[in-house]
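sorry to bug you again but im stuck and you know this stuff better than me. theres a chain ive been looking at and ive put its sequence and its fold in C-alpha cell form underneath. id like you to explain what the C-alpha cell line says about the fold, in plain words if possible. anything you notice is useful, everything is just below.
___
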Amino acid sequence: MALEPLYSFISRLARTVTFLLRHNIVVTGEENIPKKGGALMCINHTGYVDFYFSGIPLLRAKRNPRYMAKQEIFENPVAGPIMRAMGHIPVDRIAGRESMDTAIDMLKKGEMVAIFPEGTMSNSYEIKDMKTGAVRMAQRAGVKIYPVIVWGSHRVYRRNIKPNLERGIPIMVHFCEPMDVSDGDPEELTQQLRATMQKTLQEVQQRYIEQFGPFEEGLPWMPARLGGSAPTLEEAQVADDKIDEDRERANAMMRHSYKAAKEVHTVILNTTDATADEAAPEAKLSRLTSMRAAAEKLNRAAEELAEAAKAPDGEVAKRKAGAGSLRNMTETVASAAVELERATVLSSRKASRRLGASSDSVTEFATGFRHRTAKSLHAGAEYLSQKAQSLLTYLSDAEEAARKAGEERQIRHAIAREARVEQAAADEVRKTTKKLEAARRQKEREATRALEDAARATEQAVHVLEETVALGDDADAR
C-alpha cells in the first residue's frame, strides 16, 4: 500500500472517533480481505456511515478502499476536496459510464474499489434488487467480487434521523468469501450476489440479536421480519420504484439539457475559431444564427425542467436540477453570452473591411443580432439561476415534509404498539376473570354437595334416634 498522508490521517481520526464513542465493532471473516491486487467490495447499504464501519477493517488490513459515491457529495465545499484527495470516485447519474470506466481502470491497476450495488439505502433493511453494474465492472476489470455485510451502522446515522452519538452502539461487519464472476451471465450472477448477501445479512442479524439482544418489538431500525416497524421489502420497493421512475425522468431531462448546453458550447467554439480567418461575413452570420438556434433549444430544455418542477411528484427532478445540472447550464449560458459578444464584434469589423460601404446592412444585422442573442442568453442564465434556487427551496420543503411524515409514522407505530399492549393486558384480565369465575362456581358446587351430604347424614341420624326411642318405649311397656 502506497503511503497516502491524508488517508493515514483519516484512519487515525476514525480510530479516535471510534474510541471516544466506544463503538463495539465486531468484525468476522477478515481472512477474506485480499491483501493485494484489484478487488471489488460490494457492501449492503442501510445508513450514511456504512462506508466508515466497512472501511475500518480494510484500513487495518493496509488497504485503501476507493468508494464510489454520488456526485453531490463531491460538490460539497468541505467534503468534496477531501473525497477527491483520497481517490474516491464520483458517480454522476446522468453520465454514469465515465465513473464506471474510472473504477475499472483503478481495479486493473490493483486498487480496491468499494460499491453499494443496491444503489440507494434500503429502507426495509433487507437486500434490495440490484442492477448488473457491479458484476459487469468486475468482469471487465478481471477481478473478484467480495460481498460485505454491515449491520448496526444505521443505528448511528440513517435517512431522516439525526446522528446518534450514544456510546457503545454495537456494529457487526462480515466479509464473505470472494465470488468469481469471470464467466457467466451478468443477470444470473447478480441474482447470486444478492442471494448471498441476503442470506449472510440474515445470519448476521440473528447473531446480533443473540449477542446484544433481546430487543423490544416495533423498533424503527429493525426489519419487519424481526418484529421491527421498518417497512417490508415489498412496501419499500414500491417507494423505490417511484423514486427510480422520477430519477429516470429527471435523467432524461438532464441529458436533454446537457446536450443542448453542449451544442451551444460547440457553436461558440466554431464561431470563435472562424473569426481568426478571412471567411465570408455571410458564413460568420450563419454560424451566429446556429448559435441563436442552439441557445433557444437550451432555453426550451430549461422550460421543460421548470414544468417538471411543478409536478407534485417531481422531487427527484428538483434535487438533480438544483444540485448540479442547472448550475452547469447557467454557467455555460453566461459564458456563451460573453463569447457571442466577442465573436459578433469581430464579424462586424471584418464585414466592414471586406465589403466597405455596402456592408452597412450586414453590420447592422450583426449588431442587432448580437444584442438580441446576448439578451436572450443573459435572460436564459438568469432564468436558470432563478429556477435552480426555487428548486432547491422546494426540495428543502419537501425534505422537511418527508421528515415530519417519518416522525408521524413513528408516532402511529408507537400508538399501535401501545394499543397492542393494552389489548394484551385486557386479554390477560379476561383470562384471569374467567379462571376466577370457574373456580368460584367449582367452590359453590362443592359446597352444595357438602350441604346435601350433611342433610342426608342428619336425616339418617334422626331416623336412628327415632328407632332407638321406639325400642326404649317397647322395653318400658314390657
